[in-house]
Amino acid sequence: MASSTQNAGEAPAIVWFRDDLRLFDNPALAAAAASGAPLVALYVLDDAAMGRWRPGGASRWWLHHSLSSLAADLSARGVPLVLRRGAADIALFSLLADTKARSVYWNRLYEPWAVRRDGEIKARLSAEGVKAQSFNASLLFEPSALRTAQGEPYRVFTPFWRACLARPAPETPLPAPARLRGAPAPQSETLEAWRLLPTKPDWAEGLRDTWRPGEAAAQAKLKEFAKARAARYGGARDALGEDGVSRLSPHLHFGEVSPRQVWRAVATQAQEAGAAYLRQLGWREFSRHLLFANPDMPEAPLDKSFARFPWREDGEGLAAWRKGRTGYPLVDAGMRELWRTGYMHNRARLVAASFLIKHLLIHWRDGEGWFWDTLVDADLANNAASWQWVAGCGADAAPYFRIFNPVLQGEKFDPGGAYVRRFVPELAKLEAKWIHRPWEAPKAVLEAAGVRLGETYPLPIVDHAKARARALAAYAER
Fold first, then answer.
1. CB-side neighbour CA atoms (13 Å) of 123
2. Does 244 share its domain with 161?
3. Residue 289 sits in a domain of what CATH number?
4. Alpha carbon separation from 403 to 172, 313, 354, 371, 431 (Å, rounded)
């Protein structure tokens, strides 16, 4: 139900949207609506505050469509979505002056730049007599609520997750407000003027074919996954050729669905069988808590001994990895899935990341940066924590001697080659026996499949055994 009636002189409230682009289970929106004040919704694109970690190309594509969806949902309820670009404090206080609003509501961010900025804004609002309220909408538990017996943040996942499970279950998700009142619409920029979508070349065709951003799509995807697939997630999540994962990660990142909604849906529908998926939600939570406690995690290794690690400068190797031209079919399939769809299956992410770091000895930050630009679910905490985990320099990290063999990983998790055939079509006609090791296939088999190594598909850019030995030696010297 919507209303736009406003009494003369009645001060509106501003709802500042950030990574919470939804109406359901949105504590800031619910509190603002409950206040009875007419509402103005605000979104600020503050690239400068994020520095190097401004949204990448794929994230900007998603953001455009997610904001368009949110604006339509709010407009249907009589509330305008005001778009402003630039420094968040300037945009917010300018809107306060324009609307004469006396209260501001938002849901908290936990990235280091946001924590610092939001603290300064809240102090200034308080000093000017403007009511400011913030809420937790993106985590199951606040970072301050989970500490070790020594009062320190957790650095190991298993005790962290045990502590999560020992707490009362996450709160029941909030319904969307039954009634909203909109204030007169102040001046707004347009999404089109922000130029978040690619122009020439238009590289987003695969994203358009794969995804539908927005809260309605997120809710539908969660409902289908919780009902039909969450119970078998534990056994299906690593099967590269199957639809065994939820693909909710970009919807979670942009806040089109909340972690509490996901928790409640999976726990209700899948019950005990959903524990494996809830544990993955726990890893997302763990990464956020790590970043909150270690603000430099995207740039610096948590294990400081890695500051001296002998990373290699290898422009050709990095380019081959980015393009999916390493000569290892599973690695290449993952990298091409990423480029085409803005997403990569988690098992392929592990293998591709391990290949860059350990086969090529290229700095994990180079991989982190590429994923940041190309993933629709690029999340600062998850991205940094995951790359450090694979590199062995993060919290609860993989042991340095774990160096994934791309051939064996492919044969185990893509035994029929369905994943490789989909994203590396030049190998599509190759027999399953050889599809993960085409350089070992007999000449007649390659000819029958139309594969000419070094021409239609590259030979391996490194030998696995030699690369493994080189990596072990480098790790031993750090």
1. 6
2. yes
3. 1.25.40.80
4. 42, 20, 7, 20, 26
Residue 298: inside a domain: no
Quick one: pLDDT at residue 35? 96
The parent domain of residue 251 ranges over: 140-172+210-293
State mean pLDDT over 200-210: 95
Q: How many domains does the chain have?
A: 3
C-alpha span between 476 and 459 (Å, rounded): 29
Identity of the amino acid at 224: E
Q: Look at residue 2 in the predicted model and tell me its pLDDT.
A: 46
The HSE-up count of residue 315 (CA atoms within 13 Å, CB side) is 0
| Residue that is last in its domain, among 84, 117, 138 | 138
Query: H or E stretch including 17?
Result: strand 13-17
Report which of 378, 349, 377, 353 is spatially closest to residue 366, judged by C-alpha positions.
Answer: 353
In this structure, which long-range contacts are made by residues 126-129, counting pairs with CB atoms below 8 Å and at least 24 apart in sequence? 129/102
Shared domain check, 106 and 48:
yes
Structure tokens at 213: 């951003």
pLDDT value at residue 7: 55
pLDDT, residue 478, reads 78
Q: Tell me if 337 is assigned to some domain.
A: yes
Amino acid at 248: L
Looking at 293, 318, 347, the residue that finishes a domain is 293
Distance between CA atoms of residues 384 and 73, nearest Å = 33
Angle between the 329-341 and 364-374 helix axes, to the nearest 10 degrees?
A: 40
The answer to whether the pTM exceeds 0.90 is: yes
Shared domain for 254 and 352, answered yes or no, is: no
Helix (H) or strand (E) holding 14: strand 13-17
Does residue 183 form part of some domain?
no
**pLDDT single digits (tens) 369-421:** 999 999 999 999 999 999 999 999 998 877 778 899 999 999 999 999 999 99
Average pLDDT score over the chain: 95
Radius of gyration over every alpha carbon of the chain, rounded to an integer in angstroms: 24
Secondary element (H or E) of residue 368: helix 364-374
* Rounded (5°) CA angle 370-67-289: 55
Cα 329 to Cα 121: distance, rounded to the nearest angstrom: 50
Regarding whether 278 and 148 lie in a shared domain, the answer is: yes
Contact 102, 130 (CB under 8 A): yes
- For the segment 128-144, what is each residue's pLDDT rounded down to a tens digit? 999 999 999 999 999 98
417 is a domain residue: yes
Amino acid at 197: L
Distance CA 131, CA 128 (A): 9
Q: 232 with 362, same domain?
A: no
